[in-house]
Automatic annotation (TrEMBL):
PANTHER family linked: HTH-TYPE TRANSCRIPTIONAL REGULATOR, METHYLPHOSPHONATE SYNTHASE
Top-level taxon of origin: Bacteria
Protein known as: Helix-turn-helix transcriptional regulator
Lineage: Bacteria, Bacillati, Bacillota, Clostridia, Eubacteriales
Domain HTH cro/C1-type: 15-69
Gene Ontology terms: cellular component: cytosol
Length: 124
């Protein structure tokens, strides 16, 4: 059970940080997620865990992924070099929109471009 308590505390701290980054009060986030303020306080302090349904409601309300709440912000992929300047300063919502845009763009690029070096003529 100690592991569950530690995990609840870690998740709660991440949830609180995300809420505060978006300048939301507990009352407002609880309203958006359709949960009680006391339950949100219990989650943020690690006194209680939450169901997947509650996690989903909180993620949607915070415009972030459930991974952001459970695991924390994801690092730039290893081997990809450094993140472009300013990327770390994106809000969770901005990062989610950027991610969705990248996925959409990837669908439209020719597959033969993937992982290959090309001359400038190939891009014209």
């Amino acid at each position: 059970m100690a592991c569950d308590t530690n995990l609840n505390r870690e998740v709660g701290l991440r949830l609180r940080a995300l809420r505060e980054q978006q300048m939301l009060t507990r009352e407002r986030l609880a309203e958006y997620a359709d949960i009680s303020v006391q339950f949100l306080a219990d989650i943020e302090t690690g006194r209680k865990g939450m169901t997947v349904q509650t996690l989903r409601k909180l993620a949607v309300s915070l415009h972030c992924s459930a991974d952001d709440i459970v695991f924390g912000p994801q690092e730039w992929p290893a081997g990809a070099g450094t993140a472009p300047p300013g990327l770390a300063q994106l809000t969770p919502r901005q990062a989610a929109v950027l991610h969705d845009m990248a996925l959409l763009m990837a669908k439209w690029f020719p597959h033969e471009w993937a992982g290959e070096a090309h001359s400038e003529e190939a891009y014209v």
